[in-house]
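Subject: for your reference before the review

Hello V.,

The reviewers asked for a structural picture of the protein, and I figured it would be easier to keep everything in one thread rather than splitting it across files. Below is the amino acid sequence we used in the manuscript, unchanged from the supplementary table.
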Amino acid sequence: MPLDLRVGDIVKLKKKHPCGGYHWEISRTGIDIGLRCLCCGRKVLVPRVKVERNIKLIIKKD
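And here is what came back from the structure prediction:
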């Protein structure tokens, strides 16, 4: 069952981005998840399965 991820949520991943940041904002959902690094602003598109395996913490946006 897929995690309840919504646009605007902040997730902390297990591995850090090359810039040094761990926190990402979800910018797109679906079969692929769009993520934006909160440290450097880089945007990436990652398959949902890979993202769900690497999530350490979900910070919900109200």
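For the response letter, the relevant points are probably these. The mean pLDDT is 94. The domain at 10-59 is CATH 2.30.30 (SH3 type barrels.).

Happy to draft the paragraph if you're swamped.

O.
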